[in-house]
Design a protein that fits this description.
Layout (H helix, E strand, L loop, with lengths): L4 E7 L5 H9 L2 E8 L2 E9 H8 L9 E5 L2 E12 L6 E8 L5 E11 L5 H4 L3 E4 L3 E7 L7 E4 L8 E3 L9 E3 L7 E6 L1 H19 L2 H19 L1
Parallel strand pairs: 1-4, 2-6, 7-10
Antiparallel strand pairs: 1-3, 2-3, 4-5, 5-6, 7-9, 8-13, 9-12, 11-13
Helix pairs in contact: 1-5
C-alpha cells in the first residue's frame, strides 16, 4: 500500500486570476478540496513541498493528509495542472475522502522474474502496452504498484488483466473487456511496429503532439482565468 503523505496547507479567501498569480509569486500553489458531500474549500500549499512530494513518483496514488489549521483532512490528489513552459505546478485538486470510501486511481505496473521467462532469454522483448492500471480501490488499501510475474512466458504470449491477481480491496476499473497489459514479441516484430509508427508520423500524424501541447496551454490559461 502507498504510504500516506502529509502536506501543510492554508485556507485562501480570495479567488480569481490576480489572487492566484500573487500566491505563485510568493512560492505558493492554489488548490481546492472537494467531495465528501461538503462544500469545496479553497486552499494553498507551499510550492517546494508540493514539488518534493510529486518527486516521490507516487503522489497521485497516495493518501495525502492536508494539515489545515491544525485539522487533518484526508484526501486523494485528482489533478495537478502544470505550467506548459516550465512544468511547475500551478493548481491542485484534492478529493476529500470519506471513511471506507472507494476511489479510482492509476497504479504503476512492475514486471518481476524476467530471468525466468524463456521468451526473454531467447531474445524476445517485453512490449508493455499499459504502464499503469486503472483500479477502483478501498481508500485504505491503495497499492503502490502491481507486480506481474512473467515466469514461463514465451515469445508470442500476451498478458491480460485476467492473468493478474489484484490485491485485496482492488478491482479493475475497466470491466467490459479483458485488455492487454503486455506482450512478448520477437525483436524483429518490435522494430517493424516502430517503423510503422515512424511512417505514420511522417505521413502527418505527428502534429497531434502539438495539439496536445496547445490543449495543455489552454487548460492552464483556463485555470488562471477561473482562479
Amino acid at each position: 500500500m502507498s504510504d500516506a503523505l502529509t502536506l501543510p496547507a492554508e485556507a485562501r479567501e480570495r479567488a480569481g486570476k490576480g489572487a492566484s498569480r500573487h500566491l505563485r509569486r510568493t512560492g505558493r500553489v492554489p488548490a481546492v478540496i472537494y467531495g465528501g458531500k461538503e462544500e469545496p474549500q479553497m486552499i494553498h500549499v507551499e510550492a517546494k513541498e508540493l514539488v518534493r512530494l510529486l518527486g516521490t513518483g507516487h503522489f497521485m496514488n497516495s493518501i495525502v493528509n492536508l494539515d489545515l489549521g491544525g485539522k487533518s483532512v484526508r484526501t486523494l490528489p485528482k489533478d495537478v495542472a502544470l505550467n506548459p513552459v516550465n512544468d511547475r505546478p500551478v493548481h491542485v485538486d484534492f478529493l476529500r475522502l470519506a471513511k471506507n470510501a472507494k476511489v479510482e486511481v492509476q497504479v504503476p505496473v512492475v514486471f518481476i522474474n524476467e530471468d525466468a521467462a524463456p521468451g526473454l532469454k531467447k531474445g524476445g522483448v517485453l512490449n508493455v502496452v499499459r504502464h499503469e492500471l486503472e483500479l477502483v480501490c478501498e481508500s485504505e488499501k491503495i497499492p503502490s504498484e502491481i507486480e506481474i510475474d512473467v515466469t514461463g512466458r514465451e515469445v508470442g504470449d500476451s498478458i491480460h488483466i485476467s492473468d493478474v491477481t489484484l490485491p485485496e480491496g482492488s478491482e479493475s476499473a475497466i470491466t467490459d473487456r479483458d485488455f492487454t497489459i503486455a506482450t512478448l514479441v520477437a525483436p524483429s516484430a518490435l522494430k517493424k511496429a516502430e517503423g510503422d509508427t515512424s511512417q505514420a508520423d511522417a505521413a502527418g500524424e505527428a502534429p497531434a503532439a502539438d495539439d496536445a501541447e496547445a490543449e495543455g496551454e489552454a487548460d492552464a490559461s483556463g485555470e488562471d482565468a477561473g482562479e
